[in-house]
Amino acid sequence: MKALKVVLAVIFLTFISAKLFGQSQALNGQIEGTVLDTNGAVIPNATVTVRNTETGAERKAITDENGFYRVPLLPLGTYRITVEAPNFKRLVREGISLTTGQTATVDVTLEAGGVQETVTVTSDAPIADPGKIDLGRVMNTREVQNLPLVSRNPYNFALLQGNVTGRPNSEFGVPRINANGYARRTNYQLDGNVNTQADRSGIRLIPISDTFVSEVQLVTNGFAPEFGNTVGLIMNVVTPTGTNDLKGSIGYRFRRTPFYARPFFYSSPNDLPENNVDNFTATVGGPIVKDRWHYYTGYEYIKRDLAVEPGRLVTIPASAQAQLIAAGVPASAFVPAIPVSQKANFFIIRTDAQLDKTHRLTARYNYFDNDSPNNIGGGINTLQRSIDFKDKSYSLGVQLASAFSAQIINEFRFQHSKRDSRFLPNSNSGTGPSIVISGIANFGSPENKDTILPIEKMTQVQNNLTLIRSNHSIKIGGGFNKIYDFRRFAVFARYVFPTIQAYVDAKNGVNPRSYSQYVEAFGDPELEYKSNFWNFFAQDDWKITRRLKITYGVRYDLYDVPDADPNSPFPASQKFNIDKNNFAPRLGLAYAFREGELPTVIRASAGIYYDPPQLDIYARALQNNGNPRFFTFTFSPTTSGAPNFPNTLGSLPPGTPLPRRSIETVAPDFENMYAIHANLQVEQALTKDLALTVGYIHSSGRHIPVYRNINCLPVGGSLADGRPFFGTATVNSTTGAVSITPCTNRVFPQFQNILMVESAGNSNYNALTLQLNKRFSQGYQFSINYTLSKAVDDAPEQNLVVAPSLTLSDPSNRKFDKGNSFADQTHTFVMSFVGRPTFKIENKFLRTLLNDNQVGFIVTANNGETFNITTNTDLNRDGVLQDRPVGIKRNQFRTPKQFNVDLRYSRFINFSERFKLEVFGEFVNLFNINSIFQYNNTTLTANNVNTSLVNPLTGELRGPLPDFKALGATSLDSRQFQLGFKFTF
User: Fold this and answer.
1) Would you say the C-alpha torsion 831, 834, 840, 841 has a positive or negative sign?
2) DSSP per residue over 130-172, as a string?
3) What is the pLDDT of residues 108-135, one digit of tens each?
4) How far from chain centre, in Å, is Cα 188?
5) How far is it, in rounded angstroms, from Cα 232 to Cα 219?
6) Pick from 191, 161, 160, 189: nearest CA to 76
7) pLDDT tens for residues 556-566?
8) I want to staple 94 with a disulfide (CB 3.0 to 4.6 A). Which of 122, 143, 266, 876 is the partner?
9) How far, in Å, CA of 329 to CA of 500, rounded?
10) Side-chain-facing half-sphere of 804: CA atoms under 13 Å
């Protein structure tokens, strides 16, 4: 495959250098088309003028010998096209809507006559657009502002795209987004600039409110070489711009505790958790100099309770609470749900200026801060584990678009961003050591206090040059993203007790070493590292005939990862490999199989797409590289120097030998993950505003990162399915309890576990898609998507969590981990609708009653989410816990089906044509359907030969699987309702 990629890349680069790809633009759009006469003959040398009717931006083009014109890098909005040619009547076409990244194909026919005569036509570009090649959609302002969004989080809109699965976030956190069968592989963009946190995929860098969103561009497949850095979804959020009209809004939303239904599985008989929301928004935009210089600015403040989120519910049994209170734990530490809240501020200012006939400047500044007290999960946590989450971020972005001529256009982009997120103790936080009573309760000091995860700074520079040569639009570009990260890891001391009584005995001094384990972190917890991501691309958008268009090109990415520690005691941690073979050739086409009022368009594309390395891999390798700079030491009660409860050490006792370290490292031949994408789509216009698309999508993932313990060798014997043993097991003849001694035959005896991330995983995804889209007309618009898919891989993807738990079941044989992907979901349905119909009725009362009403709703349904079944024992004795029982495949099981309806209803009161008041109500889960997305306990017992469900010596099940729902489950939100008012002018 390497050789094939290099050969393809050389062919592409050679061809492009002679001619020097599609105008896929992240902050702009393109209008192109063919000018004909009434006999169908092309008209060369016609003058085409495109003018933005909202801002006055204007550009010109001349048709070539084929009558073809193209105007790239246009600001978004509504356009008027004027076409003039000698001996023909002037044609003016109104109402051309241009959205993010769109290539609007506008063919025009001129009538013979004098240029002083004008023919005016009002119509949009064809809904089945032959200029479009990628697989995706653009959510326009009407959708973004009027679909129900109680969370205020526009990133939840990603789930409205076909070929995407996942789960929304009920506040400003990150939704669970999967695309092309890959979990959490998302490239977030803000006005076309990077907005993805570099340490893990699927984490946006800067939160943004939907108040400051004009459009949302969603693309999953077939995107041009200009775009990269994901094998999954590109989600580009575009901010609003001012126009020649002064416009603004002031809004207020609120929710109170009686407005919502009891959370599912909330068992406390006490009052429901507080669920109050107060949200204020204000925006204004307009001209500074008409047709030349515009501005937009906005502010949002929100304060809301989050205790009703499913993950905040506390599950400590009442009997255990009573015993712990009797033992001295404050009663105030036990609450039905963790009282998490959120106070957030958003600010944006943007300006767009036509500096002269050549240069157009766009500049934007975003700011966000979030104060979230008691930001922890529920479960067996008490309020003593509370910490406050403080999060601040900002972004400054600039674009300079320069049309040096109709054939030479340049785009320069710059962005600087920073995020600072940290966890701080509060008045509820416990003091002293952290205390864990296994499976029952967590209290005492929070372990993650005073941590920073992370401070991340990004400086991005990108320059793209477009050259128009006849029916070719050649685009070449490159840039870099300089990344700085700083982290502070947790410094903690933890006592683990097997029972409440053992804790009581230690606390009362009866047995100060009745704990089962003591863990303390020592050393310097701070870490900083730098990275540089480079990109180069060349692409050509070739209009071969009026019906056929192909795009081709190549992208190259160089990911310069952090420097390793040359003093690491393990060779692989002394130098990290930089993969320099990241050539990604791509090819796409669009063919107008049938022209006319109801066109048929066939689209196809294929190519290679790289995913950037997750910097968390290198942070873990630097922090846990075998040097004693920062480490944790685990004591048993009999270990020399072990403390008496509740003492902590602060430093290792004199003479205490350093423990054998477990380390994490990166394979010396580690390569970047990539995917081979291919798709075929057929779109048929059913009416001028309604189109049906049927498609097939394929993606094969290669070099998916997987952690493997490389320090263990088989010792003989195996589980019933052939997984070899890597250690020994001892059975207590009296109790039947099994004691595991893992990894007794080590490759490197001086180390414990060596978890090496290797680029060895593979995946396969196939999907059939159906999409029915109606653009706004007759008072409504909608989008309906259905996806039938299957995703399989052999890679427990590490990027889902910041923990080394997702490792191979058998470090010597990958076949045992081939199974359903985390992102596998067979059936996925999603529909969004916005409607504001107009009724022409003579009766004034009925006319007033039926008009000025608007409804927006979202319907989602799927067949559930995959989940894994594991055990509480290291069955194959390789030092990695949570092995699967024999006969259980990875992610074999699925939660129940999910169904949800969100609704927004608005009533408009018109004071005048300009001044309006909107009164609206929004629902989440309108019908209060219990949609389970997670079972809380899918770990089976396997530590006793007499009583465990799983035989710890053979790994075999000895009885039926339990009812996982009865053991506890987590569901999507119960019904939520909020009211709002928005005054617009």
Assistant:
1) positive
2) TT--SEEEEE-HHHHHHS--TT--GGGGGGGSTTEEEE--SSS
3) 999 999 877 888 888 888 899 888 999 9
4) 7
5) 9
6) 191
7) 999 999 999 99
8) 122
9) 12
10) 22
Q: Where are the alpha helices (DSSP H) in 221-326?
A: 318-326
| β-strand partners of 36 | 42, 109
Pairing of strands 90-98, 118-122: parallel
Contacts with 67 (C-beta within 8 Å, 6 or more apart), sequence order: 34, 35, 36, 42, 43, 44, 46
The answer for 184, left when phi > 0, alpha when psi is -120 to 50, beta otherwise, is: left
Q: Read off the DSSP letter of residue 184.
A: T
- In a domain? residue 77: yes
Element (H, E) at 619: helix 615-623
pLDDT score, position 202: 79
Q: Is residue 17 part of a domain?
A: no
The CA distance from 550 to 131, in Å, is 10
Specify the CATH number for the domain of residue 214: 2.170.130.10
Name the residue type at position 898.
Q
CB 678 within 8 A of CB 605: yes
Amino acid at 242: G
Amino acid at 603: R
Which among 969, 974, 976, 964 has a CA at the least distance from the CA of 929? 974
Give Cβ neighbours of residue 137 (< 8 Å, ≥ 6 apart).
161, 218, 773, 783
Q: In total, how many domains does the chain have?
A: 2
Question: Is the entire prediction scored with pTM above 0.85?
Answer: yes
Instruction: State pLDDT tens for residues 634-677.
Output: 888 988 889 999 999 988 878 777 778 889 999 999 999 999 99
- The DSSP H or E segment spanning 11 is helix 2-19
Q: Which residues contact 7 (CB under 8 A, 6 or more apart)?
A: none
Closest among 724, 802, 808 to 761, alpha carbons compared: 808
Note whether 206 and 184 are same-domain residues.
yes
Are the CB atoms for 267 and 314 separated by under 8 Å? no
What span, in angstroms and rounded, lies between the C-alpha atoms of 525 and 764?
40
- Number of Cβ atoms within 10 Å of the Cβ of 697: 25
Which domain-ending residue is among 238, 258, 291? 238
59 contacts 71 by C-beta, under 8 angstroms: yes
Q: What is the CATH number of the domain that holds 99?
A: 2.60.40.1120
Q: Where are the beta strands (DSSP E) in 778-826?
A: 780-793, 819-820
Give the range of the structural domain holding residue 198, as residue numbers without chain letter. Answer: 135-238
Q: Which two tokens stand for residue 573?
A: 């941690």
User: 519 near 633, Cβ under 8 Å?
Assistant: yes
Q: Residues 114, 168: one domain?
A: no
Structure tokens belonging to residue 524: 């310097």
* pLDDT tens per residue across span 43-77: 999 999 999 999 999 999 999 999 999 999 999 99
Per residue in 707-743, pLDDT tens? Answer: 999 999 999 999 999 999 999 999 999 999 898 899 9
Token representation of residue 363: 């500049």
Q: What is the side-by-side strand order in the sheet with 215-221? A: 135-139, 215-221, 233-238, 186-190, 193-194
